[in-house]
Structures are given as structure tokens and as C-alpha cells.
């Protein structure tokens, strides 16, 4: 069985590679036509998609999934419309393939260009939401990559129906259906076969919890990109505008607690702690947030808080909880963030230019905000049109990943019989 | 002992991380001053370096190293002068850190910039040549990274002497000596501790043979970049200028056989095989090259060749040998290259624009040459000033790696109290 599953995954990867070779030659016109065809077909065939989704929801309910999980799994006419609209947005974005990044004439007359090219075969491993299936397929297609999609077993019927629609749309415009393939999802081993298909797969992006990501990183032999773990801090500096600080802390924490750009820790400079701590403690309490405070913060808060443990500084709550601490200096805040942060998004609230410059330079993260909510770290907000995840690693892509981040480059050099001197 | 070695490597990585935090704040002026100080000190202290190198050479001779290996290990006043000059070249290059890659105002007034930042701690694993120690340290320093150098045990005395000079130079300009550290090299396990020091090390670049690289890829949990394996092809198209073709084949094969950009396979279109095969076979023979030919090539060659085996198509000879084959079509050449190539450099010789465009688009490699020798794939030739290796992978960096390829990016976002709407 295991050898069979391995062969099934590898066979899909080989078909994807063949499809990717065709996709390299596809013009933007052809790719955009496929995206528009996909969007139209999703709307037309919503009934069959919703039927499959209902089967997943019933099985999920029987298996005891929480309401929150069922909500992430659920599709509706409106949600299908949303993902179709997303494909049209991607069709409207510029084609990253062929973009010339650097170039010029060398002293010997060689004409050199560094151009963006597709990566080839891109694998995605993700959890419940079936909309990720369509988003990932669309971004992969536009950037010229064949997609191997390994979704959650709980969404198998929905994903199967969605991928059938996407594949038909590809064929309708004359592109290979194997540009989009769904991998077996009932056995965890299929993830392992995907992330070790070296030479067949060019990149795997795990999108999910810390457990999935660390499994992938530990076992992968194909390149991977870590996404989405966000132990995000807001630091309120001695020179902060306290109205801005309150608004930014509340927005960063409570806008949507389940997303990776939401704040999980609050650091307050000692010089303003007397005034700001009771104010923000009350505001957070009023917003339903539980504050896990260090002794100094707790002592000043004047509102009910719980005592923070060492673990709180490293916890990504993804809930109405926040760790809170008073720090003596800017550098203490920076050191705390660099020790406990996950390199996602960090914010400073300050009116002091020197403090802001030191914070943005020394804090080691994908995004650093000055006087702005951490909630802005998002591909759509950053003007990328769409995102396939938020990279928290330093190589290849850092922060929101759009189309450009799904490409590699190639040096193309034209000469007229140039040879290199032997010296 | 093993636990001790592990702790020794990790302790070095922790010191490197502290040093890297200082380096983030170092101005270009300071970094360039360090590079110039290093260059001067290498020249001044050449006697102690050469004494250490003599000890390595004597030990190497006693251990039976080949003359070729001893030559790679050997330093001289002239070679020391060369690496010192290399540091001055790096000092003259623009600082990649702080470069703004993208940026602008978002619709809501947020001011956003994507800037280049150092990676942090960069490890290098390399073989005999001690000049790599200085080159790598210089490039790492200029790009704001602390370097952990794991050289060959056969060069231990030389590397120790070189690193002592470099560290003194760093201190002389007020930068932490721990920006450059030499790791223990007598035990292979130190490589494993380096490539699994997740969270302490940001990137490891293996520079060496295919064995080293595949060990690193299989076992690393820190990000790595594969370098330098080059099964490089020259394809002579039906529409080739045969004078150009002969010159390019000879230059690609014989300029320097031991380097990764030298050609290892020759593909000739059937339409010109009658004329070109005997001509190039004779020219290669005259240049001392052994041709491993397929039956068609062999039948046309008119000069002594040896019969190619299946292995020849995948062999990186790094010697005066070349595999040679006649192909029926351009697409057969492309398919052969994509199957057997290592994604380093591939060349076409043709006067046909359509053939050149198809080749450059479909061939999957870091560099694709049209009517030019494969020998041009090189950081210095590409105008990067220096290179730390040639990446044959698709993520992060592809082709010659200069200063820019040793950086990551960071999104820096300035607002004035901006919060994100909850919708």
C-alpha cells in the first residue's frame, strides 16, 4: 500500500512536470483565458460543488468537528462567487514570467538579461478551507507552475469537485489538465512522499499550524517555504502617541484573532507604563481580551489580569488573549522580540524618529510597522492582488507571497560566437 | 566528545548571532574599512600565513595528496596578494544592505518599502582552497552577515592563520571579531552540527563535490543553497555557424576543465552532422579531448572516439573528456538537456532566431547561452565583482551568487496611527 501511494504521488509529479513544460510556453493571453474560464465554470457548476461540500460537512459533523472547523470547511454560493472573483483578479495582474530583473551589455558585447521564469512544479499542503484549492491553483497557473494540491482529508469531496472543474477549464482553453492535480489526502504518508520527491517537485509550501510546518521542514528534501506562524508583538515606546497606541494595540489584537498577523504580545516602555498600562488594560478588558501580564504590568493594570508564565512569551494564542510586559528600554523590547518573535510582523508605536529607525533596523522580521497595525501584513493590503501565504523565512521570499514569489530566474545571454579568454 | 563538538559548533553560532546583530547597524564605511584593513593585514602578515600553509602542505604530502590537490592547497605571496586584492574589489562594490527593491504609498497613505537586509549568520562548507576562506569572509562581511567557515581539515593551519588575521582586522576597526569564525574541521560531524543548527544559522552554502552537496541537502534542517554541479551541454543546431560552433565547443570544453561551467556533453543536429561531426571530432582530438560518442556520432567522426555508455550522459568529467551525440531535432536536444543536465549552464549555437528563443525558453537552467561559450557563467564575468558560488537550485538565488544573493528582504511600513478596518 505504501509503495503504491508513493508511486501514485510520484506519478502525479511526473505528469505535472510534463504539464509544466507546456506551461512554460503558454502566453499570458492563454493563461488569463484559463483563469476566466475557471471562474465562469465554478459559478456554472456551483450545484455539484455544493453537493460535494455538503457530503464533507455531514461527514465532518459526524466525526465531531468543531463549529469553527465546520465553518472553515463550508462553501456557499457566495463563497464560490468569492473565489471565482479572486481568479479574475489574478487574471488582471501582470504576468511575472519574462519580466527582466537585471540586464545590459557586458564589456565584451554579450547581451545579458536575468528574467523571471516559472519554478516548475509547486506543491501545496494545507488544511480545511477548500477555497485555498482554487486560490493556489490560480496563482500557480498565472506564474506558469503546475500545482500539486494536498488538501485536508475532511475536504476531500469538495476539493475533488473543485479540481474537476478547474481541470475541465484548462482543457477548454487548450492547456494540459495536469497543470492542476489533487493528491491523495486520506493517508498522512502522501505528504511525506510529496516533500521527498526530489527532482520531481521544485517547491512545497506548507500552510497550516506549527506542527505541520515543523514536520515538513524536518523531513523535506525538496525546497520548502515556511509560512504563517506569527508570534506578533506591539511595542509602545516612551515617545508613543497614546491614542495611536491604544487604537493600534486593539486593532492588532482584536480585528481577527485567528489570523497570523494578529498581535500576541504587548510591550510597554516603563516611562509611560504608569499612564498607559491601566488605560490599555481597561480597553483590552472591555474588548473581551484576557491579559497575561508580567508582575510590573499586573501591578499597574488596575483591571483583572492573569499572571504570565514563561510560556506566554512564546505562545501564538490565535484567540482573545495577549501577553503583556513592561520593558525598561527600547533595546530590551528589541531583544525580547528577537528572542521570542517568529519573524512575521512586529510593530512600534512612537513619535521618536531615532527609536523608529533603530527598531526597524534591528528587529528581525518579515514586516516591521511604525505607527500602524500589524493587521496590514497581507498580500492584498500590500498591493500584490493575492497571496499564497506569508513566508516567515529569510530565503527566497519573506512576507506575503504573491506571483513574483512563485517564480525563479534565469540568465539569458546572447552573443555572436563569443569565447572566453583562457587567462 | 560528540556532545562537546556539537556544543562547540552551537556556541560559535550563538557568538555569530550576537556579532550579526551589531553588523546590522554597521555602516558601509565601517564595513569597507574592515575589508581594507583585512587586505593590508594579509599582505603584512604573509610570512606567518605562508608558514602555516607550509605545515599543511607537508602534512598533505605525507598523507599522499595528489599534486593537483597540493596545488589547490598551496598559498604564495602572489596568491595572498590576489585574495587581498579581491577584498579591495569587494570594498569597491555597492552595499546591498538597505537597497530599496520595491516601495510606494498604499491607497490608505501607508508608506511601504521592501529593503534588502543581511541574512544574519551564514555558514560555508568547502574544500581545500584556503583562498575561499578570505573570499567568503569578505563577501559575508560586506553583505552584513557573520560567517561560520568550515574548511577542509587539510587546510586547517592555513585557515587558522588567515582567520586570525581577519579577526584582528575586524577588531582594529571596531567590529566584533566573531563576524568571522572558523569551525572545527577534523571531524565530519561538525558539518552535521552546522547544518542542523536551526534557529542559530540562517543559511549554509556547501561548495564542493556532488557527495558533499547531497549529504548537506539530505540532512540539513537549516536552509541551504546547492552550488556548482555542472553537467553542461553545448548544442550545435542545424542553423549553426560552424566556425562559431567549433570555437564555442572547444572553448567550453578546454578553457579550464576543472571548473563547473566547462562543457561535458556535445549535441549535434543531424542535418549538419555529416559536415560538423568529423570537423569537431578532429579538433577535439587535436586538443587532447577524448570523445565518448553515441553510434551515429562515432560513425561520422573519422577520428578515434570511445563508445559512450548510458552513464556518460550524466557524468561531470571535469577532465579532457566529452560525451557526444547526434540528435534529430531541436526538441530532442532540449529534452536530452532537461533530462541529463544539472541546471547549471546550457548553450545553443544557431543563427535561427526561433530556435534560439525556443531553446532559451524551454531549457531549464541557471544560465542559457546563445552563440557564446559556457565559460562565461561566472560572477566576475557577469559584473557582480565576486561570487560565493554558483547556485544550481531555483529558490532564492540561481546562477552566480554575489552580494545581493547573500541578503534577505524586509518590509518596512510607516504610518501615523493606521489601523485596518475590520471588514
Overview of this protein structure:
The structure is a homodimer of 423-residue chains. With 423 residues, the first copy, chain A, is α/β, with parallel strands linked by helices. Chain A has 2 domains: 2-225 and 401-414, Aldehyde Dehydrogenase, Chain A, domain 1 (3-Layer(aba) Sandwich), CATH 3.40.605.10; 232-376, 3-Layer(aba) Sandwich (Aldehyde Dehydrogenase, Chain A, domain 2), CATH 3.40.309.10. Chain A is built from 14 helices and 16 strands. In chain A, the strands form 4 sheets. Chain A has a 7-stranded parallel beta sheet with strand order 10-9-11-8-7-12-13, sandwiched between helices. In chain A, strands 5-4-3-6 form a 4-stranded parallel beta sheet, with helices on both faces. In chain A, strand 14 and strand 15 form a beta hairpin. The longest helix of chain A is centred in the first third of the chain and has 22 residues, at 2-23. Chain A is globular, with a radius of gyration of 24 Å. Strand 13 (367-372) of chain A pairs parallel with strand 16 of chain B. Chains A, B: It catalyses: L-glutamate 5-semialdehyde + phosphate + NADP(+) = L-glutamyl 5-phosphate + NADPH + H(+).
Give a short overview.
Chain A is an alpha/beta fold and 423 residues long. In chain A, 43% of the residues lie in helices and 20% in strands. Chain A has helices spanning 2-23, 28-44, 46-62, 67-73, 77-92, 131-142, 156-172, 189-195, 210-219, 242-254, 270-286, 295-301, 330-340, 353-362, and strands spanning 100-105, 111-118, 121-126, 146-150, 180-182, 203-207, 232-236, 263-269, 290-293, 306-307, 321-327, 345-349, 367-372, 390-391, 399-400, 407-418.
Amino acid at each position: 500500500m505504501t509503495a503504491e501511494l508513493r508511486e501514485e504521488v510520484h506519478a502525479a509529479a511526473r505528469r505535472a512536470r510534463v504539464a509544466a513544460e507546456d506551461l512554460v510556453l503558454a502566453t499570458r493571453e492563454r493563461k488569463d483565458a484559463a483563469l476566466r474560464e475557471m471562474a465562469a465554470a465554478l459559478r456554472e457548476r456551483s450545484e455539484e460543488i455544493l453537493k460535494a461540500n455538503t457530503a464533507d460537512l455531514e461527514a465532518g459533523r459526524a466525526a465531531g468537528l468543531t463549529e469553527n472547523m465546520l465553518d472553515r470547511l463550508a462553501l456557499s454560493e457566495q463563497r464560490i462567487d468569492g473565489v471565482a472573483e479572486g481568479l479574475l483578479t489574478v487574471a488582471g495582474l501582470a504576468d511575472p514570467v519574462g519580466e527582466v530583473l537585471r540586464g545590459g551589455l557586458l564589456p565584451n558585447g554579450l547581451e545579458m538579461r536575468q528574467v523571471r521564469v516559472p519554478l516548475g512544479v509547486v506543491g501545496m499542503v494545507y488544511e480545511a478551507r477548500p477555497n485555498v484549492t482554487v486560490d493556489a491553483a490560480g496563482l500557480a497557473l498565472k506564474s506558469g507552475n503546475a500545482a500539486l494540491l494536498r488538501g485536508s482529508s475532511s475536504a476531500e469531496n469538495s476539493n475533488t469537485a473543485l479540481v474537476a472543474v478547474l481541470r475541465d477549464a484548462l482543457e477548454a482553453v487548450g492547456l494540459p489538465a495536469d497543470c492542476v492535480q489533487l493528491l491523495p489526502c486520506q493517508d498522512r504518508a502522501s505528504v511525506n512522499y510529496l516533500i521527498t520527491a526530489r527532482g520531481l517537485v521544485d517547491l512545497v509550501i506548507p500552510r497550516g499550524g506549527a506542527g505541520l510546518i515543523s514536520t515538513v521542514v524536518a523531513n523535506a528534501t525538496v525546497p520548502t517555504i515556511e509560512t504563517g506562524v506569527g508570534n506578533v508583538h506591539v511595542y509602545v515606546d516612551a515617545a508613543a502617541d497614546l491614542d495611536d497606541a491604544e487604537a493600534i494595540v486593539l486593532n492588532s489584537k482584536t480585528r481577527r484573532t485567528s489570523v497570523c498577523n494578529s498581535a500576541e504580545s504587548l510591550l510597554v516602555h516603563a516611562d509611560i507604563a504608569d499612564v498607559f498600562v491601566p488605560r490599555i488594560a481597561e480597553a483590552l478588558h472591555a474588548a473581551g481580551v484576557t491579559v497575561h501580564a508580567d508582575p510590573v504590568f499586573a501591578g499597574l493594570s488596575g483591571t483583572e489580569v492573569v499572571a504570565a508564565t514563561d510560556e506566554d512569551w512564546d505562545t501564538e494564542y490565535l484567540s482573545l488573549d495577549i501577553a503583556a510586559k513592561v520593558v525598561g528600554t527600547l533595546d530590551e523590547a528589541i531583544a525580547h522580540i528577537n528572542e521570542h518573535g517568529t519573524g512575521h510582523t512586529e510593530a512600534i508605536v512612537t513619535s521618536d524618529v531615532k527609536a523608529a529607525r533603530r527598531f526597524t533596523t534591528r528587529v528581525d522580521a518579515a514586516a516591521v510597522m511604525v505607527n500602524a497595525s500589524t493587521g496590514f501584513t497581507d498580500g492584498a493590503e500590500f498591493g500584490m492582488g493575492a497571496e499564497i501565504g506569508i513566508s516567515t523565512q529569510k530565503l527566497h521570499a519573506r512576507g506575503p507571497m504573491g506571483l513574483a514569489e512563485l517564480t525563479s530566474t534565469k540568465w539569458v545571454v546572447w552573443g555572436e560566437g563569443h569565447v572566453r579568454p583562457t587567462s
